[in-house]
């Protein structure tokens, strides 16, 4: 009588995702990350991925979870901030299955959100000649980023 025994290693957490790439779309105002699935799911299906980004200065963006084994990008919505303009960020990705989390991937390339351009068509007008009050109007910048929350300016009376 011959008995064949097949041995399988016990299931474990997945290996780390690879090929993490960070991008910023100025036209869509979205910070994105993409990655490749881990080489091994550890014998248990991947349930989702966590993306964590930080700057070289230490400003971390809270990790965000993206469910689904086929999810290999933060599209369409992108990563929620706060991402500060003109600060370089890198991201890493971990995969999760029923048995745990992978080690973090290698860090992505550095990406910075550009500073917004200046507002255009700035105009000052007075309500009437006898008034010491006036109003300012402008058009939004051509380049905007998620960090624009207010506009500041100063006016000077002619000498």
Structure description:
With 159 residues, this protein is an all-beta fold. It folds into two domains: 18-112, Immunoglobulins (Immunoglobulin-like, Sandwich), CATH 2.60.40; 115-159, no CATH class. It is built from no helices and nine strands. Strands 3, 4, 5, 6 and 7 form a five-stranded antiparallel sheet that branches. 21% of the residues are buried. The mean pLDDT is 81.
How would you summarize what this structure contains?
The protein is mostly beta strands and 159 residues long. It contains no helices and nine strands.
Query: What's the name of the CATH homologous superfamily of the largest domain?
Result: Immunoglobulins
Number of DSSP strand runs? 9
CATH architecture of the largest domain: Sandwich
Largest sheet, if any?
5 strands, antiparallel
| CATH level 3 topology of the largest domain | Immunoglobulin-like
Q: Percent helix among the residues?
A: under 10%
Count of all domains: 2
The end-to-end span amounts to 109 Å
């Amino acid at each position: 009588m011959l008995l064949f025994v097949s041995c399988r290693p016990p299931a474990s957490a997945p290996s780390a995702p690879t090929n993490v790439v960070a991008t910023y779309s100025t036209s869509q105002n979205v910070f994105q990350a993409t990655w490749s699935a881990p080489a091994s799911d550890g014998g248990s299906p991947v349930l989702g991925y966590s993306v964590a980004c930080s700057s070289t200065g230490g400003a971390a963006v809270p990790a965000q979870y993206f469910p689904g084994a086929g999810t290999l990008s933060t599209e369409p919505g992108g990563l929620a901030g706060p991402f500060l303009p003109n600060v370089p960020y890198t991201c890493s990705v971990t995969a999760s299955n029923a048995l745990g989390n992978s080690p973090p991937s290698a860090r992505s390339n550095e990406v910075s959100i550009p500073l917004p351009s200046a507002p255009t068509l700035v105009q000052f007008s007075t309500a009437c000649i006898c008034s010491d009050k006036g109003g300012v109007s402008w058009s939004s910048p051509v380049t905007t980023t998620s960090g624009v929350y207010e506009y500041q300016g100063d006016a000077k009376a002619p000498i």
